Amino acid sequence: MRGEVFMKKTFVTIFIVLLAAAAAVGWYIFFYTTSDDGEQTASSTEDSGRTFFPLGLFGGEAETDTDADEGGTTTNAGGVFVPPVRQVVPDPVAAAVFTERNGKLVLRYIDRATGHIFDAYATSTVIVPVSNTTVPRIQNAVWIDPLRLFVQYLEEDTNVVETFVGNVHEPAGTSTGGLLTGDFLPPNLLAVAANPEGGVFSLTGTPDGSLGNITLLDGTVRSVFTSLLREWLPQWGGSEVIGMTTKPSGNVPGYFFLLSLESGSFSKVLAGLRGLTTNINQDGTAVIYASADDGMFLKRTILDSGVTQHFSVRTVPEKCVWGTSLSSVVYCGVPDALPVDMPDSWYRGTISLSDSLWQIDTETGLAVLIADLFDFGEAIDMVSPSVSDDGSSLSFVNKRDGSLWLVQLEPVAGED
Q1: Phi-psi region of 415 (alpha: psi -120 to 50; beta: other; left: phi over 0)
Q2: Could you give the number of structural domains in the chain?
């Protein structure tokens, strides 16, 4: 009798174990499917495009090599896994741009407090000094390309905002200190925008409003814009188009125009939208925008046809960057919640937002959650996003404290 009871208990135990194993296999198959080409992908909900797990995030391997560069510093001696979303440096950063160093992807950034420039490797924690030229009290900086940038800083004695267009001279040989040299633009500029193909657009106040000039690499200055208004935000959209948006407020109608440098035309695209804020793509063919009129829902307009598409996410376009490999894709920081007085309270700094990172296909409207950034240690108010040319990595600054962050979207070419 005892033997029969023992056998029944054993059978029940085995049945439960097998049932649990089958459930685990079923769970795995449900959430992870294998595509026709053999790649493993995470399943997603059909109604919203959100994924159950972060999509397209790849962590770096555990690293033991600490001699990637002379003069480099690292904290990963002994082998430390590099997470797919990580803080590169906790100190405030003014601007960052992707480039290559010794054939590897790096994130080049300028320190806000000192103006010193560094390279941070994308797949390790190695950080290498590039320039030790000191530029204190930086207010704003934008990279034109990895070897050129403009820096705006507050002159301590006069409280004048100076704008410096700098050239980065990388260290030679085993030297650990390069230089930053360049020329000054007129002081107290109202706005500045960099053209990736060379040149800087600057807006200067005049007694009658404002004057827009383009300063070329050879120092040539050309006037291209005049206005009775001073409150403009310029953005380059390719080499011959500048998008001009009135500074946004939720209490004031906003406008977006296209300034053609070839024909000199100034064409109205968007008008009468309160709190209008925009982000034009690299070739000047489309613009994403949001306004307080409908609660900051993101939209895209094709500039030559005027066709507009609406998306299901609410954010400000300053939190977005157009993808480099696919022009229809944007990556955006999307806040968990937005206050009713957007965008004014956010611009004033009276509130901070907590974002998730989303990928949005502006052709299909599909929005896919890449990562809830809060899961990586702290609330992040994402600004100044940038994508590497190969589309593998994305960087941004946390507006809360100025710290620089890196997201690895895909495996980096040439990296193990």
Answers
A1: beta
A2: 1
Q: Is residue 19 part of a domain?
A: yes
Stated as kind and residue range, the H or E segment containing 383 is strand 382-387
Residues 6+ apart with CB under 8 A from 414: 103, 104
Q: Which domain holds residue 30?
A: 2-34
* E runs forming strands in 160-240: 161-169, 179-185, 191-194, 200-206, 209-215, 221-227, 232-236
Query: Distance between CA atoms of 9 and 392, rounded to whole angstroms?
Result: 54
Specify the DSSP element, H or E, that contains 11: helix 2-31
In what side-by-side order are the strands of the sheet with 367-372?
320-322, 329-335, 355-361, 367-372
DSSP state of 27: H
* Residue 103 one-letter amino acid: G
Q: How far apart are CA 95 and CA 109, in angstroms?
A: 6
348: left (phi > 0), else alpha (psi -120 to 50), else beta? alpha
Cα distances from 134 to residues 46, 172, 194, 300, in angstroms, run 52, 19, 22, 41
Task: Fill in the DSSP letter of residue 162.
Answer: E
Cα gap 110→365, rounded to integer Å? 35
- Interacting residues of 107 by C-beta distance below 8 A, sequence separation 6+: 88, 96, 97, 98, 119, 120, 121, 122, 393, 395, 404, 406
pLDDT in tens, 211-245: 999 988 777 899 999 999 999 999 999 888 999 99
Residues found in the chain: 416
Q: Is residue 144 part of a domain?
A: no
Composition of the chain by helix, strand, coil, percent to 5? 10, 45, 40
| Of 80, 46, 45, 54, residue with least CA distance to 65 | 80
Residue 23 lies in a domain: yes
What token pair was written down for 121? 């490797």
Q: Is the pTM of this model over 0.90?
A: no
Is the bond leading into 343 cis (omega within 30 degrees of zero)? yes
Is position 263 within any domain?
A: no
Q: What is the DSSP string of 221-267?
A: EEEEEEES---EEEEE-SSSEEEEEEPPBTTBEEEEEEEETTT--EE
- Say if residue 251 is exposed, middle or buried (CB neighbours under 10 Å; 0-12, 13-18, 19+): exposed
304-350 pLDDT, tens digit per residue, is: 999 999 999 999 999 999 998 667 999 999 999 999 899 999 999 99
In terms of Cα–Cα distance, which of 247, 243, 244, 240 is closest to 222?
A: 240
